[in-house]
Amino acid sequence: MIRVLLVDDQPLLRSGFRALLDLEDDIEVVAEASDGGEGVELARKYLPDVALVDIQMPTVDGIEATRRIAADPDLAGVHVVILTNYSFDEYVFHSLRAGAAGFLVKDVMPEDFLHAVRVAARGDALLAPSITRRLIDRYVSRPVPTGAGAELRELTSREREAVVLVAQGLSNDEIADRMVISPLTAKTHVNRAMTKLRARDRAQLVILAYESGLVVPHGS
Fold first, then answer.
1. In this model, does residue 15 exceed pLDDT 50?
2. pLDDT tens digits for range 42-89
3. I need a labelling partner for 200 at 20 to 30 A (CA). Which of 58, 68, 81, 152 fits?
4. Residues 57, 84: contact at Cβ < 8 Å?
């Protein structure tokens, strides 16, 4: 059973999301919150698999709530998915850096919404190719930070290869095909890389790959 926490200051939207999720046999909404601070407290209380968090809320917004959840070792199993009215903006970029596993636009189709919840529960990043490209574009005009990449020395050559493929938006199965290894071995390479780089999830692994210079955006 996938346990979901809803965090949104609009009761009507929460009700709509809950009604949709309650129809699924493998998903359970364990709690609802109307602001980020309450959402963090409920995350600590219920330990959901997925927290669906609105990005713009009074008092404590979605970015700060995500940052607090990501910083709490007891909430390591909580995967934050940001809900936004926009396909991509600077708020979403900052939420990914804060530790979000990905984001959804609120007018997403119901079947895509449910698929995204299940993907997030597995620990995979919700970064569609179009979104990944926009994320990459952010780095085309940004220099690689001084000293970045030192931590990459801890990675084996195969782990580095896996990280590059993750940054290109490939799933574990696709990485396995590309590296000619089993999906389980591909997952192991990715997980070990995440551990060594202290990345909370695949979304942060993508960001680290570009910030470290391991992957260079086309055109830069």
1. yes
2. 999 999 999 999 988 988 999 999 999 999 999 989 999 988 876 555
3. 58
4. no
Paired residues of 7 in beta bridges: 33, 53
Half-sphere CA count of 77, side-chain side, radius 13 A: 10
Any idea which of 37-41, 79-83, 125-129 has the lowest mean pLDDT?
125-129
Residues 6+ apart with CB under 8 A from 105: 84, 85, 86, 87
The pLDDT of 138-167, averaged and rounded, is: 71
35 phi, psi to nearest 5 deg: -155, 170
- Cα distance between residue 85 and residue 103, in whole Å: 10
What pLDDT is recorded for position 220?
A: 44
Amino acid 116: pLDDT: 86
Please give the Cα distance from 83 to 213 (Å, whole number): 29
Contact status, residue 119 vs residue 112, Cβ threshold 8 Å: no
- pLDDT value of residue 204: 77
Residues 6+ apart with CB under 8 A from 196: 151, 154, 155, 159
Residue 172 CA to residue 155 CA, distance in Å, equals 18
Q: Which long-range contacts (CB under 8 A, 24 or more apart) does 92-98 make?
A: 92/55, 93/135, 93/138, 94/63, 95/55, 95/62, 95/63, 95/66, 96/135, 96/203, 96/204, 96/207, 97/204, 97/207, 98/63, 98/64, 98/66, 98/67, 98/70
Dist. CA 63–CA 48, nearest whole Å = 18
Say what the pTM is: 0.70
